[in-house]
Specification:
By secondary structure, the chain is an all-beta fold. It has one domain. 0% of the residues lie in helices and 57% in strands. It is built from no helices and eleven strands. Strands 1, 2, 3, 4, 5, 6, 7, 8, 9, 10 and 11 form an eleven-stranded mixed beta sheet that branches. The radius of gyration is 16 Å and the shape is elongated. It starts with a strand and ends with a strand.
Length: 150
């Protein structure tokens, strides 16, 4: 069964719940795969540098995954970024089984630009349920929240 795992929507939260603009430079995608087994939890991991690994017992690769790159604007100008937190708010889902996004990782600049922008790169792991139910031939979409702390 061919499946496509992609991040559907990225939402940005700042302290005090202020929203900023998000431009998707490159969508986070866990690639396209044939699911061989769901008899255990199997992972596809994409790192922020574009490298990736997967459990060959669970998947056959069709198309490689890619890290997500997001330009965030409307931020304070030339301000130090204390930390960035990425959280799954909706699992990668379609019809039937879902994938959980775990071990989410990010990289970010030390400060925003003079124009108030920051490029955030996101990676992580998509994990099967391991409950023996089959994954269908669908595009699986999810949602992440990116919180930037100053």
């Amino acid at each position: 069964m061919l499946m496509r795992l992609a991040l559907f929507f990225c939402f940005l939260m700042l302290p005090l719940q202020a929203e900023a603009g998000v431009t998707v430079v490159q969508a986070l995608s866990f690639g396209s795969w044939i699911s061989k087994n769901n008899d255990a939890q199997y992972d596809i991991t994409i790192n922020t540098n574009g490298s990736y690994t997967f459990d060959a017992a669970g998947f056959i690769e069709i198309a490689a995954p890619q890290e997500g790159i997001f330009d965030i604007d409307g931020l304070p100008s030339s301000t130090a970024i204390a930390s960035v937190t990425v959280t799954q708010t909706i699992p990668l889902s379609a019809s039937g089984e879902n994938f959980q996004m775990v071990s989410l990782q990010e990289s970010h600049p030390a400060t925003t630009t003079a124009g108030g922008t920051a490029e955030i790169t996101v990676g992580g792991t998509a994990r099967t349920s391991g409950n023996t139910n089959a994954y269908g031939d669908f595009t699986y979409n999810g949602q992440l929240e990116i919180q930037i702390n100053f």
